[in-house]
Write a structure and sequence with these properties.
Length: 155
């Protein structure tokens, strides 16, 4: 093949346009401008997502703090209730021991038995109230003199 045929063949190999230097520079400017617009838009999208995620993190931290506080209050309440249960168990054991002692003594007079049981329940109610007031002052307002008179003393 001759060199003229090769140049003719190579020029027909693709549909390449030949741009002038100005046209090429103009196309590059437009492509770069479009790229900058796309990049800025993508950057703004990422910044918006980051801001949203930071707010979500702050909200979750706040909710976590509240849940930690609630858990601490619940733990304190649990300890308080455990203490109250232990006090009531001691009181129950004392009352059962007293009832056992009374049952073994079997006082024949029924009126004096009720007086003893009333007095006994009064003693245990007073012990219980004293224990509750000492350990759990917030419960003391529930147990007024009327409550003692009506329920603990059987009046």
């Amino acid at each position: 093949m001759s060199s003229s045929m090769m140049s003719e063949a190579s020029s027909k190999v693709g549909r390449h346009r030949l741009y002038s230097n100005e046209q090429r520079k103009d196309r590059n400017r437009k492509a770069q401008a479009a790229f900058r617009v796309r990049r800025n838009k993508y950057t703004e999208t990422l910044e918006l997502a980051a801001t949203k995620n930071e707010k979500t993190i702050e909200d979750l931290k706040s909710a976590n703090e509240k849940n930690i506080q609630r858990a601490e209050v619940a733990e304190q309440r649990c300890v308080q209730l455990d203490s109250q249960v232990a006090s009531l168990e001691k009181l129950l054991q004392a009352a059962l021991a007293e009832n056992e002692r009374i049952a073994q003594n079997k006082i024949p007079d029924t009126s004096s038995t009720s007086d003893v049981s009333v007095a006994s329940s009064d003693v245990f109610a007073a012990k219980w109230l004293e224990e509750m007031n000492h350990n759990h002052g917030l419960y003391s307002y529930i147990f007024t003199d009327n409550y003692q008179n009506e329920f603990c003393l059987g009046k």
